[in-house]
């Protein structure tokens, strides 16, 4: 994990989920995780320092026949009692997760008229906005795994959709395209433009790679740092054999009473068109923001973002420098009710990611005289072995989800009281919290390294061993 970029860089780099970490990094992380977990917690460290309280507590637990104090498996039904007699936590969750007061911009007549379109969900504007998203969904802009290393990449006919969507946006958002600085996208950069070697950093900085979209709405106050709004135009593919299982065809952009259907409608042509809608509205209103607004849209986020987001990030970095942006807003956790009440979660980190390809070769032959174990059989055993050894969960203090939980504990009035109390004494209850989070599929992989076998190929004909 030590090779992860600095946070500032990472937040600019939209495809953080695909950060290039090596299997060595992963192994080191795994080893470290296991070591953390396997260190036996000393019994004495489980007890509060305050002796009188300790005595009362011990007696109480014993009287309810609950003797497993050494691992602090305190049942939920006990927590109000435990909370009452344990010393006050060193850090109360009520002191964490402070929020800024809501900002109310001063009235501006022209802007407010347009703002009302959004705020009151003007039905006509709402329908138009849905249609603009649907149109974007109907343009197939798919990233396939084999596009990752393509150089040059623009000649691949499967990339035609990226030109189409750019042309579509040009028509749909005329003010954005006519008034904002729009760097020439077709400038052929010197090769190797996609090379990740640091020595080419300067070379890449001035290049926005072919399909990347970068808009700059200059603010009136040049001393203010810009804000950067990001999204990506690409989507993942759709397996041909699953098309019939879709409620509506994956690129239909079908609109029913509530939803826009199709690939990209949630990841993330929705935030893309929402941002363009918003900027088109403020331009229409003649609004000139004090702070520069940058829109940066990559086109290969689903295959690591090396050509799109990475190049955009370098370009922006070259212009504005280290810590040169006030805010970077990319797709992320979004709005979640996971903690009981709807909360807008700010994503500040993403997990690392790596692909591992395993190939098994065996001598050819015929199924009438097969060896006891074919290559497919060996591979099946490997897959079974991988699945039989899932990673062990761990809740490290450095995991940002700890803070997310504290925010839930502080601001959600119906937050689970057991979890709140346990969070306040996280060093004592860590194992219990891990158990709790691990049982919920929504939180399980926030504390666990996931692994999944997702592509398998082998064999070309029945009876042929190869
Ligand atoms: Zn996405």
Quick overview of this protein structure:
InterPro entries: Pept_M20A, Peptidase_M20. The chain is 37% helix and 6% strand.
Report on the structure:
This protein has 466 residues and is of the alpha/beta class. The chain is 37% helix and 6% strand. The protein contains 17 helices and 8 strands. The strands form 3 sheets. A 4-stranded mixed beta sheet has the order 1-3-2-4, with helices on both faces. A two-stranded antiparallel ribbon has the order 5-6. The protein has a two-stranded antiparallel sheet with strand order 7-8. Helix 11 (269-284) links the parallel strand 2 and strand 3. The longest helix is centred in the first third of the chain and has 16 residues, at 23-38. The radius of gyration is 27 Å and the shape is globular. Zinc ion is lined by residues 232, 267-268, 301, 331.
């Amino acid at each position: 994990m030590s090779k992860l970029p600095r946070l500032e860089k990472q937040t600019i780099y939209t495809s953080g989920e695909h950060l290039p970490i090596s299997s060595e990094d992963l192994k080191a992380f795994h080893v470290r995780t296991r070591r953390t977990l396997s260190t036996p917690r000393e019994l004495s460290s489980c007890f509060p320092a305050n002796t009188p309280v300790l005595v009362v507590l011990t007696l109480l637990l014993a009287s309810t026949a609950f003797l497993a104090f050494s691992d602090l498996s305190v049942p939920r039904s006990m927590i109000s009692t435990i909370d009452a007699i344990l010393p006050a936590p060193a850090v109360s969750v009520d002191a964490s997760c402070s929020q800024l007061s809501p900002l109310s911009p001063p009235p501006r007549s022209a802007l407010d008229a347009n703002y009302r379109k959004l705020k009151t969900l003007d039905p006509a504007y709402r329908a138009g906005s849905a249609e603009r998203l649907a149109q974007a969904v109907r343009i197939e802009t798919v990233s396939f795994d084999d596009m990752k290393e393509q150089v040059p990449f623009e000649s691949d006919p499967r990339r035609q959709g990226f030109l189409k969507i750019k042309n579509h946006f040009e028509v749909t958002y005329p003010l954005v395209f006519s008034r904002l600085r729009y760097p020439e996208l077709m400038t052929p950069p010197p090769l190797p433009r996609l090379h990740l070697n640091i020595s080419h950093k300067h070379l890449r900085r001035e290049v926005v790679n072919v399909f990347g979209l970068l808009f700059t709405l200059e603010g009136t106050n040049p001393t203010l740092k810009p804000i950067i709004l990001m999204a990506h135009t690409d989507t993942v593919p759709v397996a041909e054999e699953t098309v019939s299982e879709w409620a509506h065809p994956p690129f239909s952009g079908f609109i029913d009473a509530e939803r826009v259907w199709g690939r990209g409608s949630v990841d993330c042509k929705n935030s893309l068109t929402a941002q363009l809608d918003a900027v088109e509205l403020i331009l229409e209103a003649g609004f000139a923001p004090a702070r520069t607004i940058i829109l940066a849209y990559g086109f290969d986020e689903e295959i690591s973002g090396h050509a799109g987001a990475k190049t955009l990030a370098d370009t922006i970095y070259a212009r504005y420098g280290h810590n040169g942006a006030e805010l970077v807003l990319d797709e992320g956790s979004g709005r979640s009710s996971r903690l009981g009440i709807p909360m807008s979660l700010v994503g500040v980190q993403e997990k690392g990611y790596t692909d591992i390809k395993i190939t098994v070769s065996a001598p050819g032959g015929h199924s009438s005289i097969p060896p006891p174990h074919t290559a497919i059989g060996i591979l099946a055993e490997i897959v079974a072995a991988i699945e039989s050894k899932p990673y062990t969960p761990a809740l490290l203090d450095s995991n940002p989800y700890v803070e997310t939980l504290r925010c839930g504990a502080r601001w959600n009035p119906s937050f689970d009281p057991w979890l709140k109390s346990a969070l306040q004494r996280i060093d004592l209850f860590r194992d219990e919290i891990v158990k709790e989070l691990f049982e919920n599929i929504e939180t399980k992989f926030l504390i666990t390294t996931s692994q999944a076998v997702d592509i398998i190929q082998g064999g070309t004909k029945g009876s042929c061993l190869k």
